[in-house]
Amino acid sequence: MNRDEHVFTIRETVLPTDPDSVLHIVVSTGFFNAEEIQIAVELVDENLQKGAEKSGYHFVFMECRDEVMGYSCYGRIPGTLTSYDLYWIAIGKRWQRLGLGHRMMTATEERIRAAGGHQIFIETSSTDLYHPTHVFYEHCRYSLDHVFPDFYAPGDSKYVYVKRLVESSEPVEPGSAD
Predict the structure, then answer these.
(1) Contact at 8 Å (CB) between 62 and 71?
(2) Which residues pair with residue 90 across a beta bridge?
(3) Do the domain assignments include residue 174?
(4) For residue 91, is it within any domain?
(5) Number of folded domains in the chain?
(6) Angle 125-60-124 from CA coordinates, rounded to 5°
(7) Tens-of-pLDDT digits for all 178 residues of the chain?
(8) Which of 48, 100, 142, 146 could form a cystine bridge with 137, CB 3.0-4.6 A?
(9) Residue 96 maps to which CATH number?
């Protein structure tokens, strides 16, 4: 498929059909185990039940003709003023290799910046399966900041990537967004 043949839209509102859409997306990638898939769907359900502010889970969905092609989930890290976690970013298998991951990342970063976020953290596995993911994060200008050896399992370390959206080390007043 050629990206020029499609019109993509972005939305932030979580719809009742999104748990099924997220399930389909994360299963289609072939990257996630059953527990991870369950967590991905639970975060959408929690947003539907409590809303973004109370749940702490914010979403960005990318659609083409009412089909959800990809999504991201992010939230401010509790106890911080300006640090955010990117919990999930995934593009459905049939929509990969069209540059949509970069579009999704940009849309997510724009929303985090608009909410007053200064830095974004991403945690991921060190296994070979995730090598393309590491390359993607690095192309999006994230830096590998820390490695926790054998975190997930023996031989499977946790990589923590970070991107600073604001280089200032100026103090920030609670509730203020730059």
Answers:
(1) yes
(2) 71
(3) no
(4) yes
(5) 1
(6) 5
(7) 444 466 889 999 999 999 999 999 999 999 899 999 999 999 999 999 999 999 999 999 999 888 999 999 999 999 999 999 999 999 999 888 888 999 999 999 999 999 999 999 999 999 999 999 999 999 999 999 999 999 999 999 999 999 999 876 655 555 544 4
(8) 142
(9) 3.40.630.30
